[in-house]
Amino acid sequence: MLDALDECEEQGTDTILQLLLSHASQLPFLRVLITSRLEPHISSVFTEARNLAKRVLHNIEASVIEEDLRLYIRSELGKILKRLKLGSIPDWTDGEINSLVEKSGKLFIYAATSIRFIGDARVQDPRGHLCLILDTQLTKESEVTAYSQLDSLHIGVLQNSLSDFNHKAIMKRFQMVVGSIVLLWQPLPLGLWAQFVQCTLDDVDTTLCHLRSVIIPPLALDEAPCIYHPSFCDFIMDPSRCSIPNFVIVAVPDQELRHVLQCLKLMETFLRQDIAGILDVSLLNSKVKGSEEKVRDALSVEVQYTCRYWALHLSCVELGEKRVVEALEGFSKWLLLMWIEAMSLIGSLSSAIVSIEGAHQWAMNSKCEVIVITLLDNARQFILAHCELIQESALQVYHSALAFTPYDTALYKTYSKDVKSCIRVLQGADAQWPQNLSTLISHSGAINSVAFLPDGLWLASGSDDCTLQLWDAISGQHIATLQGHSGTVESVAFSHNGLWLASGSWNHILHLWDVMLGTCIVTLQGHSGAVSSVAFSPDGQRLASASHDHTLCLWDPMLGMHIATLQGHSESVSSVAFSPDGLQLVSGSDDHTLCLWDAISGAHAATLTSHSKDVTSVAFSSDGLHLASGSHDETVCLRDAVLGVCIATLQGHSGFVVSVAFSPNGSWLASGSWDETICVWDAMSGTHIATLHGLSDAVNSVTFSPDSLWLASGTQDGALCLWNSMSGTPIPAPYAHSNSISSLALSPDGLLLASGSHDHTLHLWDVISGAHIATLEGHSGQVTSVAFSPDGVQLASGSYDNAVCLWDAKSARHITTLLGHHHEVTSVAFSPDGLRLASGSTDRNLCLWDPILGAHIATSYCSNLVKSVAFSPNGLQLASGSYGKTVYLLDAMSGAHIATLHGHSDWVTLVAFSPDGLWLVSGSFDHTVCIWDAISRVCIATLNVDSWNILDLAFSFDGHTLISQTSTNTFAWDLTSQPPQLVSSSILEALPPTISLSSLMWCMVGRWIQALDSEGHPVAHICYIPPHYSPWTGVQASSPLNQPRVAVGCGDGHVIIVDLQDHPFVQRLQHAETPYR
């Protein structure tokens, strides 16, 4: 039985009901009785449920429950006489009992309240109180409601409790005591409550002594006064029900003023940094021994209440109240971070966002100082940006979270002066928070499609209201409405020169519009069903359309002529897209398939299957290497566009996925769903980055702006939303790459960091200061790999432009370009003596070069695309991983083939030798790492990892431990045991006695930079990289001049360099450290 469900907290109640009702049919021998007032969030679930018998008690005939009431009243009245030991008073008559039953009507709460009033032990006049109840008269007949009898009873109780309810002092005390009980958001123990509302215990006792029928009085200081039943709160806060004005409790500004001032005073008195005495900043909340006791001792019930509810009280205070403005200024300038820490410790961080938004709104409306308004707004951004971290570790508020707060914001400037963070972000921190979400509403029907003008200045939307709308994408101002369709507009697309706008409609036709004039210039007819999708070719010479008539059409937009009809699908075609080179066309259909077509001839090229339901949307990545599709099976499929194979199935939506779009910079893939969310994924790996909530209806369309900074979405309720494409995260730093980081490399002395990016450039960084040194430009394609020579003099880079570039690492001068490959160069590596440079390519060749002379030495054919190359420590062997599922071993001097190692069932993407050269390891898309004996070339172990996307393989300094990093996890393997054993991923509680700074390994585990000992055991959480820097694509660490630094490359183009010198964990090891080697 679930009784009084409406008295539970609203959040989660509807979910519990839905789960219960959805599984009720599977429990045939179980019956569940639920009682509740019909609050909206509960009644909506009841309305939709099928396997439910509903009874509204107010509609039950009074005669049905009269006997139950009579039995209850007779029994309870009898108990009163016995309890009060009033034997001289005659027993209750049937007339008295029947009269009380009649007064109660259908409400048991009336009877229960009456019994408590009659049996008040302090008064000891049960018959007199019964007479008061029976003599209570209703007001005018016209005012009779379902609660009239109960309201009259409450009035009688209140009138009897006060000697003079017109006396100012008495009523002031009543309002203060009863008002606080009613208005406080959570009951507080008597002692704390009296201090909080600033009244004496005598005031409490005097006020409540005659109100025991409606309020439960506390019997001890640690007990809380509370209301017997919510119906009394409903009555006393509603002037239309409580007919005596002096009794009405409202959230009057004076009363709430006392509450909020007391809240702010208590926080000022008790909040402090590390209030629970955790001390160790690397500990997660869940790992703190005795954390519950620490929090309970440090944060009393009263202070916890204050932290949770101060902003709700603030919302009821008169705007501009001077004392509150002054207190709020102090809170904003000194207490924000301490309050956020406290909210983390008490598990209420989610409500902190609501609180700070409410406080920010009050401060703006009160015209507080700009600094106060700005700090509160920054605090909202701070919580949103670092919510995941702060929930895990309260102390990281002052360290990772503050360190990664944009350095030009008021919050950072105010708090970084007085809070000594143990982490310094030398490079990669942002300057400002982004703009907030904006919503544009003008359509009267669902928005089915949105598209940006190629210059990003305008935005078009097509709707069920049969119109297209043009918008200023910067200001959000409405520009024009294009009318001409007689049916729903299903799809819109701009030509790549921005002159034309195409639209497809439910009425089977396409319109071409002059963008500047807003007029229809051509109408294209040829389909026999609704036109569901339109797309221009990159050169603007072709226009493709998909239709419910199972076909696609190709058109010449300049001539307005039909070119070809493409047939191949067996159901409605929902989406069409051109490849970036304009040579291919992809279509998605309700027949669950994608078709690839020759965009010039219209010939069918291939049919791709992977979805189990209708394919609703298709898109090519900007480089043409990836293909995405969304489906009614609630997934997104990410494919290799060249091979057609599915790389990853992206799961995260709980409704139809109806739209997918790649960002033009190649970093992100967005998917819109009928579950009212947008998911943002890493476009290369498919890793989930963020879920955008806050939409009020199903998402029908998503698209990125040409500069990738904005994401637009159209929803079923006609709202057009503009989001920052980085999901509410800061703008990249001035020297950050403009595209994903593909490779990081440290110079041998640890002083320089090189980063290669998909933006075609390399950057050099000073590891000590984090300063940007130089931008190296010379490639015309994505940079895939970078490597320093062993003496640190040269830097090599490989690129999609088929070339290897050599650079002077000290002067950042381009030395030479090595040409010899016919396709992308995927990997470069120097030999240990620096006399050889190896490069692997998708042309299936591995080239050896003399880096001193810039001369070609040899080319070895590997029969499959080469993905990775590595020299053995003695420089005699060269290993390469290939897309042929094999590892090749070559003679590093001549390039001669030595052996081919078979053991993987998918592409081999990484190879590495152990420091002693005895072992060779390889990582593959088949989710495994193979360990090979480098001498006998026999596979001695196969290790299973959780992902195909193995980002790095590295050995410990002694070669006894292997670290494998994937996009989702980090694994350490003990190679001294046979077979190799997985090292525990739990943080060690006690540090190994031999650990020193130079023996540490650093890796990314989730978003944490963790320190590992030489055996691969995690020993500390060091620094947390916020979600908007995701995904990380590489990690490098060094301790030049005994100053530990960790560098992280990110998919959004950020290069992060973090100084860990002041981290307590690092300082504990400093005494054991030797100079960097």
UniProtKB/TrEMBL annotation:
WD repeat boundaries on the chain: 440-481, 482-523, 524-556, 566-607, 608-640, 650-691, 692-733, 734-775, 776-817, 818-850, 901-942
Keyword Acetylation: no
Keywords: Repeat, WD repeat
Alphabetical list of CDD domains matching this protein: WD40 (cd00200)
PROSITE patterns: WD_REPEATS_1, WD_REPEATS_2, WD_REPEATS_REGION
Pfam families: WD40 (PF00400)
GO cellular component, one term: transferase complex
Repeat in keyword set: yes
PANTHER family (alphabetical): WD REPEAT DOMAIN 5B, WD40 REPEAT PROTEIN
Protein name: Vegetative incompatibility protein HET-E-1
